[in-house]
Write a structure and sequence with these properties.
The chain is built from six helices and nine strands. By secondary structure, the chain is an alpha/beta fold. It folds into two domains: about 100 residues, Rossmann fold; about 100 residues, Formyl transferase, N-terminal domain (Rossmann fold, 3-Layer(aba) Sandwich). The strands form two sheets. A seven-stranded mixed β-sheet has the order 3-2-1-4-5-6-7, with helices on both faces. Helix 1 packs parallel to helix 6. It is globular. It starts with a strand and ends with a strand. Bound molecules: glycinamide ribonucleotide (GAR).
Amino acid sequence: MDIGVLVSGRGSNLEAVLDHIDRGAIRGAEVRVVISNDPNARALRVAAKHGVKGLVLEQGRSSREDYDARIADALQRSGVTPDGGLVLLAGFMRILSKPFVEMYKGRILNIHPSLLPAFPGLNAQRQALAYGAKVSGCTVHFVVPDVDAGPVVVQRPVPVKEGDDEEALSARILRQEHKAYPEAVRLFVEGRLRLEGRKVRVQR
Ligand code: GAR
């Protein structure tokens, strides 16, 4: 399966997925392209280290729809098609337009650093601390036009500890993200995810 990854920053989740593919823990999948909206994203260096094509696409003055159409075009030219490909959002800090989400319907995954539907949007770890939550975690979900609202594929919880600051909690969640995202990708690539309404059934 041909995978395209959209990134904006550090790229540690991208790296986790690439590591799993490299060591055969995810079979039958290749990351064909990594697209960043930020030319300085470390994720581009992660892609290069793994021999994966990296592209920078900046929004500039284009509308959200036009920009997303350019992303779709770049994905398809790399073989990541709406009928057979998979698009991963890995720290991609932009909201995708409805036409893009519709085009790749059921073939876009995102990872978010909370147990959705708690703490959607930006700074999820900070939100969890401010709320006084005792447990948080991460969620891999299918992308739908509403932000952080799609069907849940994998969730992993972590405790919020007394004395945690944002950095400590984020690091604890990130360790689980690096397990959750490759697991979700593996299940998708193996064809084991069935969408029933907003529920995801995992086939054995
Ligand atoms: C991760 O913690 C991811 O869950 C979060 O950004 C970070 C990206 O790290 N994503 C969101 O907050 C999306 N709303 P990475 O670039 O090292 O993978």
